[in-house]
Design a protein that fits this description.
There is one protein chain. With 525 residues, this protein is an alpha/beta fold. Helices cover 49% and strands 17% of the residues. It has three domains: 108 residues, Nucleotidyltransferase, domain 5; 169 residues, Exopolyphosphatase. Domain 2 (Nucleotidyltransferase, domain 5, 2-Layer Sandwich); 188 residues, Hypothetical protein af1432 (Orthogonal Bundle), CATH 1.10.3210. Strand 1 and strand 2 form a beta hairpin.
């Protein structure tokens, strides 16, 4: 997305939702791709009371204008020019009879021009945003975004969209329409369940036809549910929500413990945003119906949705569909590169280590037996193995692990990030050990992957000891109890062989063979 990058440096996208106003500020560059600079949210609740009256309240409009002024100041401080600020309004403003009064007031007081988008446009942007944060499967998956006024449903795989729908069943709308008792009565709960089921019947039939078994949820309501489940299951130490999951069984435990609580009791719950104390009820009921009606086994969280999709669409307007698709599908590599740049990495060295690692992985595959998925994780660990020097040279392998685990990498499951972090951790110094908690928490198969990949990474790191990218290619020969690694190099690889000899013991132990190195070139001394 780089044809625009010389002119377009930073973009701010503002999403004026029924419950909250959000802004994300990003930078688009040729080398880094799309890098998030800042994000901010304010729970305006501009749709409060407007679902039935179709009128935005004066107090809510004033609060909305004030918040937008603050957003614009923040965007300017980040170097975003007025021409690169985009703002979209959704359900509550879209349906309000006095929406033009609000839009004109915003235009007069801030200069910001807000575009009202349809429900289907909203669904399309949400798809773009989710695909930027979560690695979609080759099989169709359900994507849903729970808003205040509407809920968008998308069925898509990594290649195409099978269904786009927007339903007027957002949590603020449903709360205002159905919920009058505290705690919520069984009658009101049943009414809402039946209403949701009727609204979602056609989508569920399409999902059944396509064999949907997993879902991806975006929005604050879904993230809040995920945080509550984490708190309930003792997983508060997990940092990232993006691409984390919860099962139907975990959800049911939360649902049964919360649904009958009063407002005052819900306010005491750990993990529940105080501004969602009311709206969490229709959210829980909706997710419960989705699990049941769509026969979903597991829900994955995306921390990107509408506003990120707005940015992606805005930045990709100068590209063909195929170019745009290729950019967005490689979210994992883009996110890794982005993290590397944030940590001031030595890209040439990191890419050299990555190339050597992949050559070693491929040529030793018959011995280690790992698959292409493990190969991909090795590539990313190699690219990020040295980013800990951003904090300190001393113990930088441990700093690398910490940054990877807390760096908000997009498109990865938590287990994958743990493997990448552990492999980077063991690229030098002590080998993997059960004494180290992050390693001991891995499953046996994951520990085996870390052992093999970190062994390969250690050897590759030795083969670029002087950071001079001297080794051009590797040729590994496997004979009985011996592996001979031949080196094609630009200059005599004495220093590289010396360093690799010191780094080989872990890989020798993992593969059960002795490793030797030799130069394949003839050099004049």
């Amino acid at each position: 997305m780089t044809g625009m990058s010389n002119e377009l440096k930073r973009v701010a996208a503002i999403d004026l939702g029924t419950n909250s106003f959000h802004m994300v500020v990003v930078e688009d560059t040729e080398e880094k791709g799309i890098v998030e600079i800042d994000r901010v949210k304010e729970m305006i609740c501009i749709g409060r009371g407007s679902i039935s009256s179709k009128m935005l309240e004066e107090k809510a409009m004033e609060s909305g204008v004030t918040t937008l002024k603050h957003f614009l100041v923040l965007a300017a401080q980040h170097g975003v020019t007025p021409g690169n600020i985009i703002a979209f309004a959704t359900s509550a403003i879209r349906e309000a009879k006095n929406r033009n009064d609000f839009l004109c007031r915003v235009r007069e007081e801030t200069g910001l021009k807000i575009r009202i988008i349809s429900g289907l446009e909203e669904a399309q942007f949400i798809y773009y945003g989710v695909r930027h944060a979560v690695r979609l499967s080759s099989e169709p998956e359900l994507i849903f975004d729970i808003g205040g006024g509407s809920v968008e449903f998308i069925i898509a795989d990594q290649w195409k969209i099978h269904l786009l729908e927007s339903r007027k069943i957002g949590v603020a709308r449903m709360f205002e329409r159905f919920m009058t008792t505290d705690p919520v009565s069984g009658h009101e709960r049943n009414l809402l369940e039946q209403f949701f089921a009727a609204e979602l019947f056609s989508s569920a039939e399409k999902a059944k036809e396509l064999g949907i078994r997993t879902a991806i949820a975006s929005s604050g309501t879904a993230q809040n549910i995920a945080r509550m489940i984490r708190s309930m299951t003792g997983r508060d130490d997990e940092v990232m929500l993006n691409q984390s999951t919860f099962t139907r069984k975990e959800f049911q435990k939360l649902y049964k413990s919360v649904i009958s609580l009063s407002v005052s009791e819900r306010k005491k719950l750990t993990g529940l945003d105080e501004k969602r104390v009311d709206l969490i009820l229709p959210g829980l009921i909706l997710v419960n119906v989705i699990f049941s009606l769509f026969r979903i086994k597991e829900i994955k969280i995306s921390d990107s949705a509408l506003r990120e999709g707005m940015v992606i669409h805005y930045l990709s307007e100068g590209y063909t569909d195929s170019e745009e698709q290729g950019i967005k599908l490689n979210i994992r590599l883009q996110s890794v590169v982005e993290l590397g740049y944030r940590c001031g990495w030595n890209r040439d060295h990191s890419e050299q280590i990555s190339r050597l690692c992949l050559q070693l992985f491929d040529q030793l595959q018959s011995l280690h037996g790992l698959d292409v998925h493990d190969r991909e994780l090795l590539e990313y660990a190699a690219l990020l193995h040295n980013i800990g020097t951003f904090i300190s040279i001393s113990s930088h392998h441990k700093h690398s692990q910490y940054i990877i685990l807390n760096g908000e990498l997009r498109g990865f499951a938590p287990a994958e990030i743990n493997i990448i972090g552990n492999v980077a951790r063991y690229h030098r110094k002590s080998p993997p050990s059960e004494k180290h908690e992050p390693y001991s928490q891995l499953k046996p198969r994951q520990q085996r992957v870390v052992d093999v990949l970190s062994g390969i990474l250690r050897v590759a790191n030795g083969l670029d000891r002087g950071h001079r990218q001297n080794i051009v290619s590797i040729e590994a020969k496997i004979r009985d109890s011996m592996i001979t690694i031949g080196l094609q190099a630009r200059m005599h690889p004495d220093i590289e062989i010396w360093a690799a000899e010191r780094m080989k013991p872990l890989l020798e132990s993992v593969l059960g063979k002795t490793i030797g190195f030799e130069s394949l070139n003839a050099y004049e001394r």
